[in-house]
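Postdoc handover notes: sequence design on the structure in folder B. Input tokens:
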């Protein structure tokens, strides 16, 4: 099972940008679909973005479309989440997720937490108004 370690969280002001990174262990990183989720206090974990094994296809929650960009570097075993125009509603713990068996269909636009089998420990993002 892949091990995931997130980094890059912090306290920023509304309108600022932040880039999260997720480093994965192992030599089969390019066999995993990767995703980012977030969880605010008192709320369920929600989908933010995902990226296909090759990086050729990306998926976003409506709430972050146009502001967040997911990317991956398979040579570095790392997935990124570039966040711009941050809002206080973006506050939460951001989790990196991976799954080796996930097979998104042609019409896939959304993933749930149950779709991913491996998780990082999370990194806190706080956006002040």
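Designed sequence:
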């Amino acid at each position: 099972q892949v091990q995931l370690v997130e980094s890059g969280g912090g306290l920023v002001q509304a309108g600022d940008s932040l880039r999260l990174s997720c480093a994965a262990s192992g030599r089969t990183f390019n066999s995993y679909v990767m995703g980012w989720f977030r969880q605010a206090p008192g709320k369920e974990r929600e989908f933010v973005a995902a990226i296909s094994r090759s990086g050729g296809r990306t998926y976003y929650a409506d709430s972050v479309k146009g502001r967040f960009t997911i990317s991956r570097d398979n040579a570095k075993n790392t997935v990124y989440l570039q966040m711009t125009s941050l809002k206080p509603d973006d506050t939460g713990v951001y989790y990196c997720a991976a799954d080796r068996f996930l097979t998104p269909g042609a019409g896939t636009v959304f993933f749930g937490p149950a779709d991913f089998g491996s998780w990082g420990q999370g990194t806190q993002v706080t956006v002040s108004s």
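Context for whoever picks this up: The chain has no helices and eleven strands. Don't rerun without checking with the PI first.
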